[in-house]
Amino acid sequence: xxxxxxxxxxxxxxxxxxxxxxxxxxxxxxxxxxxxxxxxxxxxxxxxxxxxxxxxxxxxxxxxxxxxxxxxxxxxxxxxxxxxxxxxxxxxxxxxxxxxxxxxxxxxxxxxxxxxxxxxxxxxxxxxxxxxxxxxxxxxxxxxxxxxxxxxxxxxxxxxxxxxxxxxxxxxxxxxxxxxxxxxxxxxxxxxxxxxxxxxxxxxxxxxxxxxxxxxxxxxxxxxxxxxxxxxxxxxxxxxxxxxxxxxxxxxxxxxxxxxxxxxxxxxxxxxxxxxxxxxxxxxxxxxxxxxxxxxxxxxxxxxxxxxxxxxxxxxxxxxxxxxxxxxxxxxxxxxxxxxxxxxxxxxxxxxxxxxxxxxxxxxxxxxxxxxxxxxxxxxxxxxxxxxxxxxxxxxxxxxxxxxxxxxxxxxxxxxxxxxxxxxxxxxxxxxxxxxxxxxxxxxxxxxxxxxxxxxxxxxxxxxxxxxxxxxxxxxxxxxxxxxxxxxxxxxxxxxxxxxxxxxxxxxxxxxxxxxxxxxxxxxxxxxxxxxxxxxxxxxxxxxxxxxxxxxxxxxxxxxxxxxxxxxxxxxxxxxxxxxxxxxxxxxxxxxxxxxxxxxxxxxxxxxxxxxxxxxxxxxxxxxxxxxxxxxxxxxxxxxxxxxxxxxxxxxxxxxxxxxxxxxxxxxxxxxxxxxxxxxxxxxxxxxxxx
Amino acid sequence: xxxxxxxxxxxxxxxxxxxxxxxxxxxxxxxxxxxxxxxxxxxxxxxxxxxxxxxxxxxxxxxxxxxxxxxxxxxxxxxxxxxxxxxxxxxxxxxxxxxxxxxxxxxxxxxxxxxxxxxxxxxxxxxxxxxxxxxxxxxxxxxxxxxxxxxxxxxxxxxxxxxxxxxxxxxxxxxxxxxxxxxxxxxxxxxxxxxxxxxxxxxxxxxxxxxxxxxxxxxxxxxxxxxxxxxxxxxxxxxxxxxxxxxxxxxxxxxxxxxxxxxxxxxxxxxxxxxxxxxxxxxxxxxxxxxxxxxxxxxxxxxxxxxxxxxxxxxxxxxxxxxxxxxxxxxxxxxxxxxxxxxxxxxxxxxxxxxxxxxxxxxxxxxxxxxxxxxxxxxxxxxxxxxxxxxxxxxxxxxxxxxxxxxxxxxxxxxxxxxxxxxxxxxxxxxxxxxxxxxxxxxxxxxxxxxxxxxxxxxxxxxxxxxxxxxxxxxxxxxxxxxxxxxxxxxxxxxxxxxxxxxxxxxxxxxxxxxxxxxxxxxxxxxxxxxxxxxxxxxxxxxxxxxxxxxxxxxxxxxxxxxxxxxxxxxxxxxxxxx
Lengths: 691, 579
Description:
The structure holds 2 protein chains of 2 kinds.
Chain A: E1 7-13, E2 17-24, E3 29-36, H1 42-51, E4 60-66, H2 69-76, E5 82-87, H3 93-96, E6 121-124, E7 127-128, E8 134-136, H4 140-152, E9 157-161, H5 170-182, E10 188-190, H6 191-194, H7 200-230, E11 237-240, E12 246-248, H8 249-254, H9 262-278, E13 283-288, E14 293-299, E15 302-303, E16 305-311, E17 314-321, E18 324-326, E19 332-336, E20 342-348, H10 367-373, H11 391-406, H12 410-432, E21 444-448, H13 452-463, E22 467-470, H14 477-482, E23 487-498, H15 501-523, E24 532-542, E25 549-553, H16 560-579, E26 588-599, E27 620-625, E28 630-638, E29 647-649, E30 652-656, E31 659-663, E32 667-671, E33 677-681
Parallel strand pairs in A: 1-4, 4-11, 5-6, 5-9, 9-10, 13-21, 21-22, 28-30
Antiparallel strand pairs in A: 1-2, 2-3, 7-8, 11-12, 13-14, 14-15, 14-18, 16-17, 19-20, 22-33, 23-26, 24-25, 24-26, 27-28, 29-32, 30-31, 32-33
Helix pairs in contact in A: 2-7, 10-11, 10-12, 11-12, 12-13
Chain B: H1 5-30, H2 34-37, E1 42-48, E2 53-58, H3 67-78, E3 87-90, H4 93-96, E4 102-111, E5 114-124, E6 151-157, E7 160-161, H5 163-172, H6 176-204, H7 206-229, E8 234-242, E9 253-262, E10 265-269, H8 285-300, E11 314-317, H9 336-350, E12 367-372, E13 381-386, E14 389-390, E15 401-402, H10 415-421, E16 424-431, E17 447-453, E18 458-463, E19 485-488, E20 496-498, E21 502-508, E22 513-517, H11 532-540, H12 546-551, E23 557-560, E24 563-566, H13 568-578
Parallel strand pairs in B: 10-11
Antiparallel strand pairs in B: 1-2, 1-5, 3-4, 3-6, 4-5, 6-7, 8-9, 9-10, 12-13, 12-18, 14-15, 16-17, 17-22, 18-21, 19-20, 19-22, 23-24
Helix pairs in contact in B: 1-6, 1-7, 5-6, 6-7, 8-9
């Protein structure tokens, strides 16, 4: 061929499938592929899937990758043998944790075991005060002895956490350098490099988890890099981070703890990109998979983030997209509790055996089985006809497990299963909106993932959300979203001090050093200094309070009085919005400073579905809707018909390869100029009718 | 076709549970007091208009069953004359069940002019203006010494703040800005509850909400009684003694529990327990009933979201004027020891019936406080720091190091937060080797927390109990866990060791070192039956020493270059000899 490589490819690895999206930036054409997700040969499957596009890797300019290798290693607890080095007197911090009984009435509750057993947690003499003052110097001879002892116990990776290292990393740096000088190939994770935040247990946990998965993630990314290079791809491999930006494979291999949300992040940043183009400020992003329902929020045009999460009850600090995940997906199992009351999830039938109707040995009724019984899914056109659906088996399972014991009929039981799943979904959205003082009626809902279009109307109706957007190819939307990602570097430092005129100078010096680090990393990807966007945020609280609110600071290096007063105003307004009160004059404290550097990548074009020959005779199917009082005959439409302005009134079913959208009675669906399907309640006065 | 009622009922229940979680989050995020934001010493409850529990999110379980009693006392006091926009405050221990520091703030919720529900927050305040900073007085003799008392005054009356009352509170507590901040946080959570319940009633109708929750409660009660019916009719007794009431060194402080399984009900009696004590270890009636009810709920239905239906199958007989049923003006500030004793006695009664639901005995409440009141030279501070300890072993697993069972979900304060916020440096946080009760499955380890006080003029409190008649009792041949203690200036010439609690110790000079050591948990089963691989792991991890492996566990080991190894033959001989 000989031409400059110009294709862009995004690869999103899920539990069942690897999703691929290819973008031809010249024509703007988007193509989609799927390949089986085989954990032991991911790199091979990945190359094979790209091959299906009939485009050589030497023609690919950018390869973006969302990976679940790191998070899977954590969830399954298959990682390296880690040795922990910590401050004298504190080796048990990792085991004691916070001593919580999270299931408060469970007298036989068991907290997770520490990933590093006591004999592998070693102490060295050193101590800093809370403000970073050195109280006791680091004993390097003792460090050498303890590291050698750990290596004698087959340690594969070292984690180092010293008290107050966020305030002054001098001892962690000295220890890291010392180990690197003696054992250059030994992987070492130091706490202040993975998170500059306080709380020693949470920081130790984050550090140990990083060390635990680092050798495996590095091996995977090195292997993948070698594989794609052999196929002719010589550009950097970009890896999605939990924060929603990409970083190089080298950084991801050093700090794999940053990739925990690498999988679901793609859909959220894709949503943000779509919303920006459409001029939407507030959106609720909903991703319905086989096992979970993932909810994220776009508020005032920004993705809502959080500063920590947990994996297997072990805390992880660090910026990540705030995605709440509940056990309500297509595979979620319906069951009866002791009273008996009807419950759905969080247990899922997963990919194997899957829902009863898949006929792969599942016997417990699932949400998908309820959809099948109610006629919402076409038994002859599931996954484009690739999979046979056993309607009778689904009905039997619901009858035997739910309907008969409750003494209700089959249809009521199937309706009930969906209603419970839908309220759980609505509660998850309430947790992100109502609980934070936001009114869901001011948001649009983006519905994607394999089941996004099946629940959207019911959940939106429950919350009175006025508009639903089902993007093009919703089942592959997370992979598409990767193509919209920018390079992002986050730096954060905890520094608890008064937020006032006297201390501002010091805060700004810290912020400037964070900026330098973050900016250099982005420039390392080939961005010019002027191309790097910088965002500054402070975590603030009222003096005496514990929990802080993160607020944006627009011009931190501007006029000091203005920085203080505008930041204060923003904090107090946020506090009032969240909690209903906030004193405008009370003293403020800064807890952490944050700087984010961004290198922007050229995004894909968004296009409408072209005008096509309208469907001729539309097939019809009987589908059950509670609000219609039973089964009603619905038209079955093809998604490809929905050019801008094309409209259908519910009830209706809209099919496309790999997913189905259900338009409830009282709702209408139309195509827009961005290729979306837009679902809205039919305005008062319009007469619902079938086209 | 409308929604199937059984489905609608679930939706309403789930919404109310989620609402209490949202209220709790608001409280934690806005509170000023580490007892609330780090330690979660609070609970959030939504109740019917008759004060039946509809939903709750507890941080500690002592409030779960007592909160409705507090609201019922308010209904009686006002004879139902509540107005929309009222916010009530109550902390009388004889109505709330615990101690005067736990202050309940609750609100009536109206829909279309009719009272439809209550919601509220019980929370441990940083100070309540009693004899000792931060409360938990060890030696009061009347409740009047323990702090200011509220009996359902209106903090806000029909939407108008009672500023005089707010000022009165600020003028009578040691850390007014913290207390006021916490009170605002309680209020914010209540306002959120009002909005949430009103929105639910607006959507489904107040009558349907009430009807649904009445159904949930009835169904839950039926399930509890069915669980009890599956147990054999039987009678169990257990008793325990406190060391000391804080005043009478020679008194006898006995607590007796008799549990009778009688068809589908559990009948408990505390007859035989000692008279009301002069010192403040008495537990008021609402909490004596409450804690036993909560422990039973946790044994039978641990993961079910709590409602009134969990508490209807139990009868508790309380003898009047006893340590478990005192009357005003008896002191109650250190009520928590009896809470843990009742928890343990309940486990002792049920551990043979349901061994998979009851742990062996756990450590008794251990914590440390130090404080100084504000004066001209110093802004003052109050630190209350829990020293978690060894929980009892399970029938099939070693015990954990956690908060005691009766206290629920209380996280430990991080060292980095404590040192940043208070004039203190921690020099050690570690498990205590050998502190766990030995057994086939051993108890959880006790903890050391060592504090160097950096500012002079501070006073110290140390909290412990049951050093003679331990709560951390072993089961089925398992051994007891070690007791808690405090060492002041360890390894110094003026070193002193304390197994008796104290309050107001000081003023101590800067540089004083306090080493608090919490107790271990009781073991389960005979130590000589412990899997030798577990013994080896404990030895490798320095949780026991070679002497304990050999002498207690009957496991012989050899030291090799790679570490400890099992001597299987010698172990077999030792264990045969042990029988």
